[in-house]
Amino acid sequence: MPHPLLASRSAGVLLHVTSLAHGVLDDEAERFIDWLAEAGQRWWQILPLAPPDHYGSPYAGLSAFAACEGLVPPTAADSATDDDVAAFRAEHHIWADGWETFAGPGSLVGQVRFKRRWDQIRRYAADRDIHIMGDLPLYVAQNGADRRAAPEFFRNDGVAGCPPDYFAEDGQLWGNPLYDWERMHADGFTWWVDRVRRAFELFDAVRIDHFRGLAACWDIPIGAQTAREGSWQPAPGHELLSTINAQLGTPALIAEDLGVITPDVDELRLAFDLPGMAVLQFEVEHHPAQEGRLWHEPVRIVYPGTHDNATAAQWLALASDHQRWCVDESVRLAGADPVGGAWSFVQLAHAAPATTAIVAAQDLLGLGDEARMNTPGTTTGNWSWRLRPGELTRDLAHRLRDLTEATGRI
Hints:
This protein is of the alpha/beta class and 410 residues long. 35% of the residues lie in helices and 15% in strands.
């Protein structure tokens, strides 16, 4: 069985912190939590909180441990004292000095301020029975703090990426450094255990992005022009996850198992009872969703689309007649009223057998391509969408609550 937090039917909303109305953790965060509670939701899913790269991507964060201090508005917390910084450094001694060396003098003040504000939000959410689902990128940045602080755990002869797939015909050449798994194994995976421990200081559940990289990684030689030149190389996922469970008490992990999934990836996920993911845009591409894996593997997190997908409205605008029929037929087979449009995906996600249904705020609002969060393989025009103040209305909360209740997710 999966972790108890992920074992019963529930629902939530995907909205990154930068997509709040002002792009920071001001009082809009509490307003959003109140809205989730009114809508009968249990989860707030966000993207990584790391300091992003210069393109704004939180998946190319400059640290696997530090949070982005820019998410805290200047008025949200007083400046930290020397005693505050000393206490933080002692509590986070494993990574704090390395981050300060990388980011410069005074950088721990920002971490103290972030912790103070984030702890407030965590308590506010918990008081309203809202859990926060975080995101753990598998890899770290090429020129980030982690490699500089512990270069012995990273290789120099290859970089990470993924093979040709749905998103990119040449694959994706991410350029992240690959782990020296042999060295990490010999060290007892301490770096990874510390990283996951840090994640659960911040979140109630954690999605491991690109989970398949723990079974085998796409290893691209240095100097390759495209990801097509890569090859699969094994990774010690069983040993790593066993160590994490032994030291951290089986935390609530989720496996992002989208893309090229081979039997060894399924075996690894199932061996540790981790919920996988299903994206409805993929499930209804060729046939009704009831004919695919989603209706036969209930221990999953289902999404109309993730941050990497088109919005539901955008997908429908580009879909073929057959694909739109697949959506309508899926809704009919699920026993829902066929209201059409992006809400069909919301209905279908909630009706699915999956234990948890997560819907992006953009799809609740029926927004189009102007609201897409990220287009994989591109570096511009991403990560910038924000809610307008008051855009999530009480009427929408009640509509979502009615659906959530009708599908047994409250």
